[in-house]
Write a sequence for this structure.
């Protein structure tokens, strides 16, 4: 790769994302770049990986926008990336002001956020574009369900899957009755769940889609996973990501779906417009997200053959600790 200038990349809501930030730190260190981190909590493990860390206010706090823009200008941030979906819409309104101070915001355009951050909207969009999804019921349809088939109830919006749980009979819905608009019912698909870590360039072109099996999950986060390749689901995911790219998707997309055991049919369940928790496996398998983002900041063409990632590579996650002195 041709020599590139040292750049500064800043992450918001770094939390426990040590492996992801470590991958960026290693790539930035190769070119004299700088990795910054920020979080509402000052004691977060990923802070230890950053060259510099700062505690910031919540996205919905007064003065958040001005404070963030001032920080980016002061630190000469070239690329700003958030890992926390609830602040995405707020950040999208700050894009023009961030651009004025020389900071590129790695965030898909609002039409993409509207589709991806509402599971019901995503299901309807998939139906319009010809993608298969499990049947969904929103709050207005709950009364039609008679318990004939197993279902899952899950948040209509939000991150992670730890709040999703099975529904075996109508009485199981009673705890959710006070906030029905916040939840959806999803048809149960008997099969294996897969995640696709996709990466799109600044023009919405699909650079890579890494397919991995979610072998073991704890509290909604994958802790054991392996890269796989099944042509039909992989190609459908490439097509889905390409369509989102035309709508303004950029950078990472985390796509999830199931392959039904009985007939091999594939169903999309959701797309998150951010780095997923298991993306370090995709990076290790050859989807060089940190390098590609540096190239994007430099307006360089990314040369990569989609589907060329390493197959049957396992990721086995474990608990670790960092130690800090205050």
């Amino acid at each position: 790769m041709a020599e590139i200038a040292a750049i500064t990349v800043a992450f918001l809501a770094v939390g426990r994302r040590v492996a992801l930030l470590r991958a960026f730190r290693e790539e930035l260190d190769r070119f004299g770049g700088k990795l910054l981190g920020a979080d509402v909590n000052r004691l977060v493990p990923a802070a230890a990986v950053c060259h510099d860390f700062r505690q910031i206010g919540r996205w919905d706090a007064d003065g958040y926008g001005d404070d963030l823009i001032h920080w980016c200008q002061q630190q000469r941030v070239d690329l700003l990336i958030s890992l926390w979906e609830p602040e995405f819409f707020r950040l999208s309104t700050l894009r023009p002001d961030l651009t004025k101070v020389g900071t590129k915001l790695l965030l898909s355009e609002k039409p993409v956020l509207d589709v991806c951050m509402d599971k019901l909207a995503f299901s309807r969009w998939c139906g319009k574009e010809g993608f298969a999804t499990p049947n969904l019921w929103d709050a207005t349809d709950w009364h039609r369900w008679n318990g004939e088939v197993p279902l899952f109830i899950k948040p209509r919006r939000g991150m992670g899957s730890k709040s999703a749980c099975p529904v075996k009979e109508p009485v199981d819905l009673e705890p959710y009755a006070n906030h029905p608009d916040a939840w959806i019912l999803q048809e149960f698909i008997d099969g294996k769940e897969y995640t696709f870590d996709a990466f799109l360039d600044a023009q919405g072109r699909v650079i890579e889609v890494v397919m991995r099996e979610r072998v073991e999950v704890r509290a909604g986060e994958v802790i054991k996973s392996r890269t796989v390749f099944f042509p039909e689901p992989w190609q459908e995911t490439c097509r889905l990501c390409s369509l989102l790219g035309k709508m303004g998707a950029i950078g990472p997309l985390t796509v999830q779906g199931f392959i039904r055991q009985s007939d091999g049919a594939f169903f999309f369940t959701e797309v998150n417009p951010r780095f997923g928790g298991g993306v370090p496996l995709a990076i290790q398998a050859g989807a060089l997200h940190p390098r590609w983002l540096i190239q994007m900041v430099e307006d360089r063409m990314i040369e990569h053959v989609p589907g060329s990632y390493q197959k049957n590579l396992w990721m086995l996650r474990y608990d670790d600790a960092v130690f800090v002195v205050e």
In short: The first helix runs from residue 18 to 30. The chain has a mean pLDDT of 93.
